Amino acid sequence: MKWDGHRAHISGLDDYILSHRGRMKPCTSFDTLDMDSKENREFGTPERDYMHFNEYIAPAIAELKGRFPDEYARYYEGYARAAGDGALAERRTLINPMELIGSMGSAAAKFFRIRVGACDADTAFTISMALALKLAKAGKDVDYALVWDRPHCQADYPNEACDWIERVVGA
């Protein structure tokens, strides 16, 4: 590990992340500053097609107000609305499987198969890993794999899913 005066570098891990894992999302991730992502639309209402939904971004923008007043003026209010919107909070809960897995009265499949590409630039593998762990903790049979050198939505080998289904149903 080396220190360059600003941050530590773990050369192998840094190289992997910078050259292989890449990132597609901006720092605000799915809740984009310009409120133009599919996720912003997912949380919209009949009255407003697109909405900010991340209640934690407004405080971060507020901390930067002095250094970036124009950006503060442009973005703060939209994100601040997310914090006090009870209906939005309910929609966030309903769309989040982590809130429902293992809860009283929830029903879910017994078997889950999750494949994630090791060079998926859309979502960190830790998201799917957390989902797999939560399902396993809830007593589900989880077949999870991080597939080397595959991007988003391509982390499956031909016929592998069909073979898994046949094993699960006992065909």
Key terms:
171 residues, two-stranded parallel ribbon
Structure description:
With 171 residues, the chain is mostly helical. It is built from eight helices and four strands; from the N terminus they run ββααααααβαβα. It has helices at residues 11-21, 38-42, 57-63, 69-83, 86-95, 97-100, 125-137, 160-169; strands spanning 2-3, 8-9, 111-117, 141-147. The strands form two sheets. Strands 1-2 form a two-stranded antiparallel sheet.
What is the strand and helix layout of this fold?
Elements lengths: L1 E2 L4 E2 L1 H11 L16 H5 L14 H7 L5 H15 L2 H10 L1 H4 L10 E7 L7 H13 L3 E7 L12 H10 L2
Parallel strand pairs: 3-4
Antiparallel strand pairs: 1-2
Summarize the structure in short.
With 171 residues, the protein is mainly alpha-helical.
Helix and strand run:
EEHHHHHHEHEH
Helix content: 40-55%
How would the global form be characterised? Answer: globular
Low-confidence stretches: none
Please report the total strand number as a whole number: 4
What is the rounded distance between the termini?
Answer: 51 Å
SS element count, helices? 8
Strand order of the largest sheet: 1-2
Give the integer mean of the pLDDT values. 84
* Rg, alpha carbons: 20 Å
For the report, how would you describe the main beta sheet?
A: 2 strands, antiparallel
Which band does the percent of strand residues land in? 5-15%
Structural class: mainly alpha
